Structure formats: C-alpha cells, structure tokens
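Cross-posted from the bioinformatics board.
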Amino acid sequence: MRIDLRAWWSFVRRLAADDAYERYLEHHRQHHPNTPPLDRRSFYLLEQQRKWSGVQRCC
Amino acid sequence: MRKLFWILVAIIGAFAVGGIAISRGETINAMWIVVAAVCVYALGYRFYSAWIAARVLTVDATRATPAVRLNNGRDFVPTHKWIVFGHHFAAIAGPGPLIGPTLAAQFGYLPGTLWILVGAVLGGCVQDMTILFLSTRRNGRSLGQMAKEELGPIGGYAAMIGTLVIMIILIAVLGLVVVNAMRHSPWATSTVFATIPIAILIGLYLKNIRPGRVLEASLIGVALLLFAVVGGGWIDANPTIREWFNWDGPSLAWFVIGYGFIAAVLPVWLLLAPRDYLSTFLKLGTVFLLAIAVVIMSPEIKMPAVTQFIDGTGPIFGGKLFPFVFITIACGAVSGFHALVSSGTTPKLISNEADVRLVGYGSMMLESGVAIMAMIAATLLDPGVYFAINSAPGVVGATAEAAVETISSWGFPVTVQQMSELAQAMGESTLFARTGGAPSLAVGMANIFSSAFGQSMLAIWYHFAIMFEAVFILTTLDAGTRVGRFMLQDFMGHFWKPMGETSWYPSVLIASALIVAGWGYFLYIGVVDPNGGINILWPLFGISNQLLAGIALCVATGILVKQGKLKFAWVTGAPLAWLAIVTTTATWEKVVSPDVRVGFLAAADQLAARLAQGTLPPEQAAVAPQLIFNQRLDAVLAIILTLVLWVVIVDTARVCWRVAKGLPVLPTSEAPATFISVTEARITVTETR
C-alpha cells in the first residue's frame, strides 16, 4: 500500500513537471559529468522559455 | 469470454444509441447519452484504433522512437505513456469542446451528440493518432514541415497560412466569449480580473521564492482562485465597489486587447507559464468532478431530441442542420488544431511507437467525452431558459418581455419571473442575452455541481464555472498570441533579417501588436454587433479549424499513398472528403445565402440599404459602416480559407496521381529506422503498461 502511494505521488509530480529539475540533474550526471549543471532557477527559466516557443495549447 | 464481453458492449451501445435516437418522450435521462458514449468509445478504441495501428500505420514496438534515440533530458525525453497522455490531453483540451456543443444544442440534443461520437471515433481520433505517429517517425516534425517535405512547398505554405488565420479567428471568438460572460457582471469581472495578479504572484513564487516547485505553487494558486470566486461575491454585494467592476462590452473588449498585448510581450515566467499551471489544474480537476457529478446527478435532458431550428432559423446562429452542426462542433469531434500539438511537442515524449494509440486516439476520445458533458449541461436546462440566455437582443428583442414572448412563441415557454429568479440564484443581475455559450454552460454546470455536491451554493458554482472557463480562455489567448507572433516574426524575417529574431524587442513589439490588432479587430466588431457577434465569428472559427483538419488529413493521406497503402487511404481520406464537403458547403452558404442571418453579403447589403434609407436607429447607424465592411471582409476570408483547403487537396491528389503513374515524388522524410532489441521493446512496452 505504501509503495502504491509513493508511485502515485511520483506520477503526480511527473505529470505536473514538479520533478523536472531532479530529472535534469540525473540526466546531466549521466551524460555530461564533467560540466557543472544549471542551478534550479536558471533551469526553470530556460525550461519555460523552451516550452512556450511552440504550440502548447489548443482551442 | 472476452469476445462475449465485447459483444455485450456492442449490444448495450447499440441499445443506448437507439434509445437516444428514437426517444420522443417528454424527457430522457442523461445516462442514456453517457452509456452510449462510453460504449462507442470503447468499441472504437478496442477495434478501430487497434486495426489502424496494426494494419494501416504498422506501428512497430521494436523501432526506437526519437525520444529514445535523441534523448537530451529536455524536449526529447522517453516518458511513461500515461504521463504523455496527461500532457497531451491537457494541451488539446481547451474551451472549444465546451462552447461548440452548447451552441449546437439549439438543434436539439441528438444531432450534436451523434456528430460528437461519430466525428471523434472515425475522424478526430484518427487524425490525432495518425499525425502523432507520422510526426514520431519524423523526429517530431511540425505539421507545416511535414506538409512541405511530403507534398511540396504549396502544402507547406497553405498549412502556415491556415494556422495563422485560425489562430486569429480563434482568439477573437474566445475573447468575445469572455467579454460576454463579464459584461455588466461585477462578480464575474472582478473574479476574472483577480486571476491576473494571482498568476503573477505564482510566477514570482516559481521564479524567486521556490524555483520550479510547480505542485505547491499551483495548490496555493488554485486556493487563491477559489478565494477570488468567493471574494467576487462580496464585491458584488457592496453597492460602491461593485460599480468599479460593472463594465460594458466595448470597455471589456479594450481591456482584453490590452491584456493580450501585454501578456504577449512579458516574459513567459511572469504571466503565461503560471497561468497555464493554474488553468491545467483547474481543467483536469473540473473535468473529473463534472464527470462524477453527471453520473451522480444523472439529470433529465429537457431539450427535445431535434428542434424546429434545423430549418436554419435558429436564434443562436443562423443556418440549417447541414452543414452548420458540423461546423459549430469542431473541437470535440474533429479539430485541426490538435494536429499542431500532435506534431511537434508530444512526439518527442513518446517512448514506444505502440503508445500512439493511447496518447493520440485516447486523448481525443476523452476530449470528445468533455464535449458530451457540455452537451448534457446545455440540454438539461429548460429549453426556454437556454434560448433566453443564448439569444442576442437583435434576434429575440431588446427587452426581457419581448425576449420571453418571442421564445415562448417558439414553443419553449419561459417567463420574466423565472429568468429573474434564476439570475438571482446565480448572483447575477440578468441572464438575458448572455451569448457566447459560457454563461449557459456555467448555469448548467452550477446545476449539476450543486445537485451533486450541495444545493446551497448555486451562485458560487456559477462563478466558479465562469472563472474556470475564463482562466483557460485567457491562457489560450496568451499562448495563441505568442505562437502567432513567432510565426509572423519568422515570416517577416524572410524580408528583413532582424525581424526574424524572436528576442529582438522591436520585432517582438511589432509582431505582437500586429497579431493583437488582427484578433482585436474581430473581437471589437463582435462586441458592438447587435446580433451578438457569435453568429458571425463561431462559424468562421469552425470553418478554419476544420480547414486545418483537412490539411492534416491531406498530409496523412498523401503519406499513406506514397507508402503504397492506397487500399487503406480511405481511413484518412473519408474524413477528409466529409470535411471538404462540409466546409465548402458552409462557406458557400455563408457567402451567397440570401438569408441575412446566414449570408455575409446579404447581411451587408441589407444593412447598407437600411443605412442609406435612414431607417436605422442612431446608435446602430453609428456602427453600421464598420459592420458592413466586416461582413464583406468575412466573406472574403471564408473564401480564402476554403481555397487554401482546395489547393492542398489538389496538391495531394497530384502527388497521389504521380504515385499511381509511377512518376517520381518527393522522397519520404521518415527518419532512418534503428531498432531496439525485442527484449528491450518488451521491457519498455511492459514498463509503460
């Protein structure tokens, strides 16, 4: 039961992009271990810029 | 056993569809519609989408998707299929499927309901899934790029023009819906105004206080929004403060125009992004709640199955059942706009090709379900009340007495007292002539919510529903203006390089101003039009949205034929043919019909004649020249839109003909195949199951 709750919580976080920074850090550690990652704030701002450069919302 | 289950679903579904189709009693329970919809979707998903995926598209679970091959942790990220489903649904579901069915309810509940079900299962869902799949095979190329690379430059330019025009018309009509909901309603206006500082506050929180903590920020924001709904009631109760928010239509139109411009040039983190988080939360939450509430309440549908307005004399919009029910309900049945989301953003998240079925077909099914709920919310009202809310004063008469007399004479009895009691219960001064669909939908939703979750709070539920619609209409408005701005900057960059730089401030200001001026013009004319504006703008929106669907289906059909799948080309070709017939007939009628409520030119001529004779009252004479010009402009616009569609159809036919003759065509733009091992494929598929 506890595991289910945790899975559900991580699903909700993923859906809301609440865990975007953690996933970025994970990806960064695996693929670019020799460069320092962005801090939380710069990452967030850059992500918003990227996200809102295309068609994201519909009628 | 399994076979037995599906046979049972088919029988129940057929029974429910038959039930709603032949019922001619006083009322019918909404559960019939719900059951019919669930069965139709289940069968469509289980059989048709599976067959398309396996036989037509030949989805290959062992072929690596761009998210897997190009994983960069940002836009290309292999993602669990239910997460992609959530993102994709949140992106495609806008105010369209709520408003279209509300307006189309003037024909009765049956025509709209059948079109929503059939159109979605055979048209809209197929389009969304096919485009999603084709774009996934092409590294997430956009619809315009695919049109250009697969059909040729003509298709590419047509897709670009179509997108820009639909964006402008869409924003204008949505702006009009919000303005009509706020007009002389201090409660609604103050609540909608309050959403702006709330969004900015959340934007600052997400940037400076707790960067990127989306969930907690959204929860705070939603709590503030709910408080704003209640607070609006206090403002409304205060005789002095309520006058600050008691605005007329043109002032509200100017406000929306100014807001749209500012929102388009501000950095996204400040207003657009936080507003979108809030609206997505509200959207998913409200859709979920509404579905539960409809089932708990299982309301009686009071609207007849078919009304006399199928003859074209409807008060909400003029025009016969064919083709106008198919134009009015675009989103919810077939929406071309979805093709823009299905190409570009979503394909970059697909972790396995097998997921396109759930994400593409499934999301559109859910959106169609939202349209069904909007239809239920509109038709559970007393028909007299429904028509009193949605009919413009130019059609039924300017005073309450005149309006109820006209509407009652149609056989839909309603009284002034009934309307004023309803308005009072909803916390409004009047509900007459609140055109645009949002207020009557809000009355329907308030009815459903209050009877499912507590009768006492009708006014709160009503304004919650208005706020809910306004929040995501304004999100679409911001986001649409921004996308339009990028497209215009890209276009102007061809003529003068610096204009193409998306972050060069003069270019940002000029392009944004042009886009806002485009939709602002249509919005303003719609607001000053005594016939309500919706009668003109909504059909134009429907035509342009389905024009875009036509272009998307052309691209899909062309690619199928190029792949040698001519015998399956009807899968996208049949909906394409239907949309071509519908939009072309609708355009023809909108342009040449002698009925002034349908034909743009007839309306312009009649108004011009009356202006020349001097028979118009002075306030109408003042705006008449603008209205005359606008009707003629709309006629030209409708013709251009339909021509664009036919150019793409002819271009597609040319490509198909060359394939049939064995002549060379453009090579496929599919990315070369890389395969993951069968075990790996099985792992990603089971992981995401």
